[in-house]
Design brief:
Elements: H1 6-11, E1 18-22, H2 26-34, E2 39-42, H3 46-49, H4 61-72, E3 79-83, H5 92-104, E4 110-114, H6 120-128, E5 133-138, H7 144-147, H8 157-173, E6 177-181, H9 185-194, E7 199-202, E8 210-213, H10 215-219, H11 236-252, H12 267-274
Parallel strand pairs: 1-2, 1-8, 2-3, 3-4, 4-5, 5-6, 6-7, 7-8
Helix pairs in contact: 2-4, 5-6, 6-8, 8-9
The protein binds 3-methyl-2-oxobutanoic acid and sodium ion.
3-methyl-2-oxobutanoic acid binds next to loops.
């Protein structure tokens, strides 16, 4: 299949919905790609779902490069986007240096960063350097200290006006799409109508140009907490646990390994060694 590019995603506005999922390593990226995702994001949510941190703040650029590079080996068609971690784009220079690493070392085709008006200079510099940028507004988890937790945003008229300004600023700066996270559906609709780039929703209702969810939430691999906006399509955590329990039981009662899993010596060699 022909690889999907950032301009391809940008062109998918008011048409076919854009299907996105997170990925964090070779098998998760391969499964997402084979399932037909248009875009795969190596999200910094992997800090929580894969590395076991309390929030997304402590994942490093080195770690994101490592996971992105693994994911890149599993992708043939989907556009691979790498999240820029907390503080890695605090200045334009940092954004260029760290964004560059996610592309050249991580083998991502684009980067994502959180924020609107305040990060427009970073979005512009990255885009001009040849790095396509996916923006992210609404509940931006790198700002939980400021928000006081993982709380839905954009509930007041003023907040929605600010979100529209943020989305327009990143569009103006060159972003090829923008994530809208945990905002009322009415706000998502207004923002989607206010920009010419696609909006990718997570907890933003069914009015955005695309949807994204976290792989571990969708498949039931992460149950520390499940946000309201998640739909769980499988319980692979439970399936994995049951399978491993069966393995343990078989080991303990010596029904594993069985004949089929066992190597045997040729009879003549066995006779010689036993004599
Ligand atoms: O890190 C992440 O998984 C994300 C998406 C859910 C948008 O930023
Ligand atoms: Na993220």
């Amino acid at each position: 299949a022909k690889p999907i590019t950032a301009p391809d995603i940008r062109a998918m506005k008011n048409g076919e919905k854009i299907c996105c999922m997170t990925a964090f390593d070779y098998p998760s990226a391969m499964i997402g790609d084979q399932a037909g995702m248009d875009l795969l994001l190596v999200g910094d949510s992997l800090a929580m779902t894969v590395l076991g941190h309390e929030d997304t703040l402590s994942v490093t650029v080195d770690e994101m490069v490592h996971h992105t590079r693994a994911a890149s080996r599993g992708v043939e068609r989907a556009l691979l986007v790498a999240d820029m971690p907390f503080m890695s784009f605090a200045t334009v220079d940092k954004a260029l240096e760290n964004g560059g690493r996610l592309i050249s070392e991580g083998r991502a085709k684009a980067v994502k960063l959180e924020g609107g008006v305040p990060v427009a200079p970073q979005v512009k510099a990255l885009t001009q350097a040849g790095i396509p940028v996916m923006a992210h507004v609404g509940l931006t988890p790198q700002h939980i200290a400021e928000f006081g937790g993982f709380k839905a945003q954009g509930k007041s008229a003023d907040a929605v006006k600010t979100l529209i300004e943020d989305a327009q600023a990143v569009e103006e700066a060159g972003a090829f799409c923008v994530v809208l996270e945990a905002i009322p559906v009415e706000a998502a609709e207004l923002i989607t109508e206010s920009v010419t780039i696609p909006t990718i929703g997570i907890g933003a209702g069914n009015v955005t140009d695309g949807q994204i969810l976290v792989y571990n939430d969708v498949l039931g691999f992460f149950d520390r907490f499940t946000p309201k906006f998640v739909r769980r399509y499988a319980d692979l955590g439970a399936a994995a646990r049951e399978a491993l329990q069966m393995y343990c039981a078989d080991v303990r009662r010596t029904t594993f390994p069985g004949d089929k899993n066992t190597f045997y010596m040729p009879d003549d060699q066995l006779a010689q060694v036993r004599k």
